Structures are given as C-alpha cells and as structure tokens.
Amino acid sequence: MYTLTAIQERRSVKHYDTSFDMPQADIDRLLDLALLSPTSFNIQNWRFVLIKDPELKKSVRAAAWDQAQVEEAQLTFVLCGDIKAYGREPERYWQNAPEEIGNTLVPMIGNFYNGRESVQRDEVMRSCGIAAQTLMLAAKAMGYDSCPMIGFDRDRVAELIHLPDDHEIAMMLVIGKAAQPARPRGGQLPREEVVIENFFPAD
Known about the structure:
Blueprint: H1 3-9, H2 24-34, E1 46-50, H3 54-63, H4 69-72, E2 75-82, H5 99-113, H6 117-141, E3 145-149, H7 154-160, E4 167-176, H8 191-194
Antiparallel strand pairs: 1-2, 2-4, 3-4
Helix pairs in contact: 1-6, 2-6, 3-7
C-alpha cells in the first residue's frame, strides 16, 4: 500500500478478530519499522511495552475502562519513554557517525536536557507520538488496523507494567486484524481554521 493511501485509510478501529494469529514475522517487521522513528538527538527514548500475557491483558483492559480492543487486538502496546535516556551513555546514539560529528553532538545532548525536567518529559511525548504514527501507518500498509488510546488509568497501568520512576507513559496503542470497520469520521475542521500562515491574526 502506498504511504498516501495508508494515511487516508488509517482509522481508529475498536473491534478485532480474536481468531486471527498474527505471524511473528509481521510483529518483528512492525517493531523494526517503529525503531526507525526519529527522536531528538537520536536518543531513542521510546520504550514499547508489548502486553502478551493473557492475564495481564485482562488487568490492563480493566484499567482502560473495560475497552474491548485492549484484549481483542493481536498487539497491545503501552508506549512510554525513558525520561533520562539523554544521559545514559549518550555516545551510543552516535557510535556509527564520524568521530567529529559524535564529538560535537554528544556534549550538546547533556547541555540541552540537564536540569530541564519538563523538556525531558515533553521529549518522551514527542518521541512516542511520532513512533505511534509510524506503527499505525506501517500496520495499515501491512493490512492491519490500529487504535491509539489515552482512555486508561495511567497510575494503574504503570503499576501493572512495573514502570520505572524515571519513565513516563504517553499512550496505549493496539494493532490487529479488524473484525468491524471503523465508525464514519466524526467531522473534519476546515483547513482554513487549522492552518495559519505566518502568524495568528491580532485581536
């Protein structure tokens, strides 16, 4: 499927075919593509918690207001991020670059994030959002559907997955073989309302 078609046809699907067994090769392909998602300074701060244990899935579903897709979809992810990834051996992030590039960029990472807790957290949200879109479009191109989710008890899910204190949850995301099509689009705002040229108009 062409990328533009995947963008046009991607929808949030709520019901999945529980009889379908997703091939491991497809799961690996989706994850490999997700890992190509860009991150600031290449810090790769996203973490993909794939919920596979059936009992854990039930518990996560309960923490997500009993939304069926959590348990029915073939893949259930908690997308979270390592807030302190910028400081964890940052030379790793540029180990394959020419030495002069690494020597320039690695010190910049610490200078940008040190002491800026809100920026560290915001970076996790940005990175996970980009990765989620990569996963959703890749899934659609491979014949699957998906649903990003924020409707869950964040603290309970964090407890269930043993989230480290220096990590933050951005969203959940399910991927699978649709059992029912998505509902019709609710309504798109006009382009002129959401696209601003140069600056907002003065009051």
